[in-house]
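fold-stage: in
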Amino acid sequence: MPSGLVALLDDVAVIARTAAASVDDIAVAASRAGTKTAGVVIDDAAVTPSYVTGLSPARELPIIWAITKGSFFNKLVILLPGAILLSEFLPWLIIWILMLGGAFLCYEGAEKVLEKLGGAKHGKTVEDDISDPEAFEKQRIAGAVRTDLILSAEIMAITLSELDLPTWWERGLALALVAIVVTVVVYGAVAIIVKMDDVGLHMTKQDSSTSQRLGQLLVNSVPKLLVALSVIGTVAMLWVGGGIIVHGTHEVGFHLLYDIAHGAESWVAGVTGALSGIAGWVTYAAISGVIGLALGAIIAFVLHNVIGYEGAH
């Protein structure tokens, strides 16, 4: 074999080994960074079922699939290139974009709380008389995809901040891997949750008494589960949105909110002994949620009473 070809094959082998090592590094980095997004992933999974609650069971999976496609588009087409470009050229801008997203989450969560407390509803809900079901469904999907964009931005930003990879394409592959896995897990879980009652109904028609009892349990539990998820989703919006604002304002030089939240967290952790970790985190999350509720209420007041925006949920 000519020596030139041997040298070429040797170079190819070296490149292949380097590429394989890079792939391993990307997978490990993506896995490590992905675990940091758990709080936002829970938020995403809790919020989404509310967009199909009360609609026709036959439309649940098509709606979830439409939202899933929107989520993939958000993460891979809008946010991934933007995250890479910002990290390369305008890293200082990321925190401001995150705070805008956090403010939106605060507004969404606060508006749900205000409506539950008797405030005016903005935009149609499933309790209203829907004259155009197709248009209403599109509106619900658009609302879900819009909320997903904010949550996905937070997921991508957290992931990017945790990545320690030297080149933009490695960071891009890691972000894409996290985006795909998170989307599949979140919306797969949502699909299972919203179809649990159909599975339960099918089981009640089986001959086995055990299947019938389990099926009835599922049928009875799903409405309560969806209500609980709606509450969890609202709380998570306020907690995540408020947390983004607390962290973001600290990063840009305004430390009051951060000092209050972390000061309370440290104090509670110091007096709760073995429960210090959990108690401290709950305290920080609760204060973030209160901050998020206050900010969201202010934004809702300005939008609806000053600007006149009616909203479209």
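fold-stage: in (second)
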Amino acid sequence: MNWNGHVAIVTGAASGIGTGIAECFAEAGAEIVVADINVTQGERVTADLQKRYSKGLFVETDVSKAEDCKRLIDQALATYGQIDTLVNNAGVNFVKPTLEMDEADWDRVVDVDLKGTFLCSRYALEAMVARRSGAIINIASVHTVATLPAAAPYAASKGGVDMMTRSMAIEFAPFGIRVNAVSPGLTDTQIWNDIQDAAEDAELARQHWMDNIPLGRVQTPREVGNVALFLASEQSSYVTGANIFTDGGMTIQLTNRERFASKSLEGVAPQD
């Protein structure tokens, strides 16, 4: 596929999975809009993309705010004239016992992880419908099918992203727009570092997760990026409404809580 002229927006691209996705698109030859609330990190990632691939535009964006999401889309259109792909990756990973949560905790997670995905999609879809073409890729989570204690708003948000993906896929298929989701499992990001730091025995924690991942390793952010690239490409032209799991086989074998989280790791969510 010729990616020249292809314009992709990646939210939450200043770190972790988002950076890996942005790198995959830029390396392929697409124009990349890096959207993130973290200006310092966002500008650093964008500068790196420009240096390595001559690609990259940074737009400071808080996806929980409608005005920011609209400005993101407007700026991408003003710069490149079109939007071919939107990757809704921005998210908040949150773990806290339910009885210790307050309304602000719930709102923060749902506003970023679920509402933010809706808002960016809503404004991008206007431009895509006009061209009768486009792809939206929502980064969900293994929490769409298997979760942990003390992760209620996160699990609810990611479950909502999965179902929103399906609904929008049906609604916008007549316009030639495909909407899919990717559900990462354990990924080599700051969250993986946090999981190890939170464990009483880091080596035991690492072994526990490897024992529960059939492929026996942690994936890289770019492995998620490669799946996103596929879903944006012509090679997936008949794929819409799907949720592709990049979890090394972890969730296909889960049958009970004990196989997913040992007591020493309760409350730690394995996602971006």
